[in-house]
Amino acid sequence: MNLNATLFAQFVVFFILAGFTMKFVWPPLMKALDERAERIANGLAAADRGKAEMAAAAKTAQTELAAARDEGQKRIADAEKRAQMIADEIKANAQAEAVRIVSQAKADADQQLAKAKEALRSQIAGLAVKGAEQILKREVNAAAHADLLSQLAVEL
């Protein structure tokens, strides 16, 4: 075999293989590489959009958290005011009840005092009649002298 013929045959085979590779193998490889590069670019763009959305969401969350904190403080202040109003109302009701109880107790005491005075008057009237009996040494009729005894009780 001739070295030139071998080189020429290898040269022809190389060009056929190169042509076959460029026509059938190279386009699908380039297409796959281009698709992969496009997917990577889309992924990076999506990651950038995600970062931007995340920053916007964090800012929105901070704003809503501050608003919720302010609302919570407002509700706490309203609850404290309401509790103070209820405590004042309870205190006023308790004072009114105490005044009512004291006035009721005074009325009861006055009534008891009046009853005791009336009982004491009737006892004094009885003692006066007995004393008069002893003085006069005769029996005084209490029914006959009821007007006199009631007048005496009023004077006492």
TrEMBL record:
<keyword id="KW-0375">Hydrogen ion transport</keyword>
<feature type="transmembrane region" description="Helical">
    <location>
        <begin position="6"/>
        <end position="26"/>
    </location>
</feature>
<dbReference type="GO" id="GO:0012505">
    <property type="term" value="C:endomembrane system"/>
</dbReference>
<keyword id="KW-1133">Transmembrane helix</keyword>
<comment type="function">
    <text>Component of the F(0) channel, it forms part of the peripheral stalk, linking F(1) to F(0). The b'-subunit is a diverged and duplicated form of b found in plants and photosynthetic bacteria.</text>
</comment>
<comment type="subunit">
    <text>F-type ATPases have 2 components, F(1) - the catalytic core - and F(0) - the membrane proton channel. F(1) has five subunits: alpha(3), beta(3), gamma(1), delta(1), epsilon(1). F(0) has four main subunits: a(1), b(2) and c(10-14). The alpha and beta chains form an alternating ring which encloses part of the gamma chain. F(1) is attached to F(0) by a central stalk formed by the gamma and epsilon chains, while a peripheral stalk is formed by the delta and b chains.</text>
</comment>
<dbReference type="InterPro" id="IPR002146">
    <property type="entry name" value="ATP_synth_b/b'su_bac/chlpt"/>
</dbReference>
<protein>
    <recommendedName>
        <fullName>ATP synthase subunit b</fullName>
    </recommendedName>
</protein>
<dbReference type="GO" id="GO:0045259">
    <property type="term" value="C:proton-transporting ATP synthase complex"/>
</dbReference>
<comment type="subunit">
    <text>F-type ATPases have 2 components, F(1) - the catalytic core - and F(0) - the membrane proton channel. F(1) has five subunits: alpha(3), beta(3), gamma(1), delta(1), epsilon(1). F(0) has three main subunits: a(1), b(2) and c(10-14). The alpha and beta chains form an alternating ring which encloses part of the gamma chain. F(1) is attached to F(0) by a central stalk formed by the gamma and epsilon chains, while a peripheral stalk is formed by the delta and b chains.</text>
</comment>
<comment type="similarity">
    <text>Belongs to the ATPase B chain family.</text>
</comment>
<dbReference type="InterPro" id="IPR028987">
    <property type="entry name" value="ATP_synth_B-like_membr_sf"/>
</dbReference>
<keyword id="KW-0813">Transport</keyword>
<dbReference type="GO" id="GO:0046961">
    <property type="term" value="F:proton-transporting ATPase activity, rotational mechanism"/>
</dbReference>
<dbReference type="GO" id="GO:0005886">
    <property type="term" value="C:plasma membrane"/>
</dbReference>
<keyword id="KW-1003">Cell membrane</keyword>
<feature type="coiled-coil region">
    <location>
        <begin position="51"/>
        <end position="89"/>
    </location>
</feature>
<keyword id="KW-0812">Transmembrane</keyword>
<keyword id="KW-0472">Membrane</keyword>
<comment type="function">
    <text>F(1)F(0) ATP synthase produces ATP from ADP in the presence of a proton or sodium gradient. F-type ATPases consist of two structural domains, F(1) containing the extramembraneous catalytic core and F(0) containing the membrane proton channel, linked together by a central stalk and a peripheral stalk. During catalysis, ATP synthesis in the catalytic domain of F(1) is coupled via a rotary mechanism of the central stalk subunits to proton translocation.</text>
</comment>
<dbReference type="Pfam" id="PF00430">
    <property type="entry name" value="ATP-synt_B"/>
</dbReference>
<dbReference type="InterPro" id="IPR005864">
    <property type="entry name" value="ATP_synth_F0_bsu_bac"/>
</dbReference>
<dbReference type="GO" id="GO:0046933">
    <property type="term" value="F:proton-transporting ATP synthase activity, rotational mechanism"/>
</dbReference>
<keyword id="KW-0175">Coiled coil</keyword>
<keyword id="KW-0066">ATP synthesis</keyword>
<keyword id="KW-0406">Ion transport</keyword>
<keyword id="KW-0138">CF(0)</keyword>
<dbReference type="InterPro" id="IPR050059">
    <property type="entry name" value="ATP_synthase_B_chain"/>
</dbReference>
